[in-house]
Amino acid sequence: MTRSSDGSATYWLIGLWLLAHAAPAAAYIDPGTGSALFYVVSGLVVSVYFGVRGLYYRVLEAIFRIRHKDQRCDLAIHCEDPRYEITFLPVLKELVARGVEPTFFTMYERDDSYEPLPPKVTHRAIAPGMVGYAYLNNIEANMLVTTTPQLDVMTFRRSPRVKHYSILQHALGESRYVRPYAYDFFDSVLCCGEILEANIRKIEGIRGLPAKQLYHTGIPHYEELLKNRHAAPPPSGETVVLVAPSWGPFSMFESFGVDFIAAIARQYRVIVRPHPQMKVSQPELYAKVLAVSGVQVDTSRTPAESMSKAHVLLSDISGIAHEFAFIYERPVLIIDQRRIVGGLEGDLLGGDSELKERCREFIVPVPPSEINNIAAHIGQALVNHSPARLTEVRAQLIYNFGTASRVAAEQISEILVRERASASPKKARVGFSGTPAGLGSQGAA
What is the pTM of this model? Predict the structure, then answer.
């Protein structure tokens, strides 16, 4: 036993000596072999990552596949983030008025600071992220309504016990700037307007998908904004410019800094509203915005008060541009940086934004090269603005302006009655990407 141990020690010493006195060696790997090795190694790393991630996801799915009482309901309304409550609350009220008792699934906790839910609405707070989606992927319901796109593409999957999936719009938009397959696997889309409807039909044709149900619905939360507008006094006195851009690489603050605000403030009173996501994703830039002197900075929960005070809005790609124009009927200027649609549905649709083109008379695009002359462009927009022309275009672009929550509740109720009468959930089909998706029937309302 001792001799064996001594022998092993000797071998270890010899091995260490050889390593310490190894002679340099020249080696050559040709570029093709080097690239192949890189792809092999990176492929192994990525495979291991997604393998572990997939195992975690399957464990969550197995946990929630065991049905619990709180996973069963008639109508499920899924709200991913508190900012979408303004979309759902007016619809919930209209549904309750029609005798429907929805279950409101939120991926956050609701406390006393939130508006109380209507009576007969059951609230379920579920975990955010993958855990919450694992829960949703195994609920049982006749119908699920959400604002979250890309069903059956990534984490958000169809439950075999949900008969009908529908997506409701939380902003005026088009398919151009959403990720691929955003609407493809829903049974129905409660459309905001004709541009989105046309985009979806075009994508269905290109991909060879069956036509899903498209409803002429509108934008329910515009009604809440209208209430705020009517409750607030109209702006008066010195002209107020609201500067409220988006966040990220296309934001005005990211592209041009904050110095241009000073040029505006020399001629107008300025309210600056930084996007809330900047505080999380761009904290240093957010701090610079808060430090701008000679202007009012608005960080309140909603922009309603600032919008009611402003005569004109300066923005970029933020959805606030359409809200300000169509609710307050006042002019908007946007810094017209060309948006990259690579990897988005715009790649498939081709061309430029139809929504931007049809709104350019009152949501005025300004070239980025004119940022130092922006105060002059603001003055010109105020002089040229025509509220009558704005309301004419609004009627063309937005379905059921001012009554969308009632219309949405009627449409949801109709679908719900139909699905209650069906014997079982629709069988999933295999879509073009190999993922199961509901087979929606054709029929635009």
Answer: 0.77
